[in-house]
Amino acid sequence: MASYIAPGIQDKFDTLSPELKNCILAREVRLHTLQDLIHVLEEIVQEGES
Description:
Layout: E1 4-5, H1 10-14, H2 18-26, E2 30-31, H3 34-49
Parallel strand pairs: 1-2
């Protein structure tokens, strides 16, 4: 399954660093809303703190 970024949040996704975008895409997530993006970013932060 490939990751999906909805057109409505693509501009927000594009502001992230290339490393962070690659990390998100590697998770094979489907991001339809800004809340979906925030949730994935929170997961990444939590994993980094562990």
